[in-house]
Amino acid sequence: RNQVSISDEELLEYYNENKESFLEPVQVHARHILVETEEEANNLLLQLKEGLTDFAELAKEKSIGPSAPSGGDLGFFTRGQMVKEFEDAAFSLEPGEISEVVQSQFGYHIIKCEEKKEDLKRNARRVE
């Protein structure tokens, strides 16, 4: 049986050149409020920024999205599962942060990031 000798440097170089295949997708757990008009979205955002109401309660009361009964909870999702405008906003937030108003083909969203699962690099040893 032939043995192939690979140095640590070669392994590291391979890993660095192929990092994408060693990354777990980042996941975001978010809630959102979806409304039909920008004006309504801005009014709701103002209430949230002033701390006058709870995000989940406001989603239940005001959102026209299918997740409204669960307080706008969308669970965890990865890139490629939501429309681009929504996804870009959701992935830019830190846990606890609320987005500005985001327009999509569905209407106007306010997004709250609940938690994030960051890149978890798989062990580079798997290359060996």
Which oligomeric state applies?
single chain
State the CATH architecture.
Roll
Helix/strand class: alpha+beta
What is Rg? Answer: 20 Å
The percentage of residues in β strands lies in: 15-25%
Specify the overall morphology. Answer: elongated
Helical segment count: 4
SSE topology string: HEHHEHEE
CATH topology: Chitinase A, domain 3
Portion in helices = 25-40%
Overall domain count: 1
What's the total number of strands? 4
Mean of pLDDT? 88
Q: Main sheet: which strands, in order across?
A: 2-1-4-3
Q: How many angstroms does the end-to-end distance come to? A: 17 Å
The low-pLDDT segments are 123-128
Largest sheet, in brief, is: 4 strands, antiparallel
* CATH top level assignment: Alpha Beta
Textual characterization of the structure:
It comes from marine sediment metagenome. This is PpiC domain-containing protein. Residues 25-115 form the PpiC domain. The protein has 128 residues and is α+β, with helices and mostly antiparallel strands. The chain has helices at residues 8-17, 38-49, 55-62, 84-92, and strands at 27-35, 73-78, 102-104, 107-117. Strand 3 and strand 4 form a beta hairpin. Mean pLDDT is 88; it is low at 123-128.
